[in-house]
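For the sake of clarity, the format in which proteins appear in this thesis is described at this point. Each number in the token line that follows is a code from a learned vocabulary of backbone shapes. One such record is shown here in full, so that the layout can be seen directly:
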Amino acid sequence: MSGPGVGVPELDGAPLFLLETLPDTEQLLVTGAEGRHAVEVLRLAPGERVRVSDGQGAVAEGDVMAAGSEGLRIAVRARFEVPAPSPEFVLVQALPKGDHGPLAVDLATELGVDRIVPWTAARCVTRWRENRVAKGVAKWRSAARAASKQSRRPRVPEVTEPMTTREVCGMLADVDLAVVLHERARRPLAELQIPSDGVIAVIVGPEGGLTDGEVVAFRAAGAEAVRLGPEVLRTSTAGAATLAALSMRTRWV
């Protein structure tokens, strides 16, 4: 995540809970799975400080009044807005096999991604058939939400509908820098000029690698083919590693 903006408190280790909406009231009640987690797992007690967010940057900070069967009741002490980080990070993630998709989303969320695009690459082992698209997207969105809570991020990354290679190329017209990770690329990521604002897209291929046609299409759309280093990373970890490298050169300078 980017550092806090002017007048925004440091987002320290206080537990964060996410609600669909954040009522403008003096007290908040966290119920359902969030409330049970607070009471049964975190075992929060009256007087402890917590934060509640709508997942879009609005945050209410307060103290626990009661923790019990009804959930977690909080007395709101302050409210603030966490601005969207800059630059915006977009991860175009080829569908990994098995449960590696949610893992890729989890790691990318913890390392600051703002938007995740599931990509149906030519060599993807996993295929989301028409009757499985909604389930797959929901699983990735759930992973992004859970990772946001764990990493205390008041802005939950957007997970879009799946895109084809052609659709990803079209999307690249609206970004300021696009990089496609390729083990045979000669240019290292460290050599690139990285913009300090705008939109940066990172394209990660599947276990079987990118086809020559995909590399050509992405480069024609303006993407730079780069490598992180001599090692070839798993598709589930490559995006997170790239986001970490980009953050060190943009958000924390």
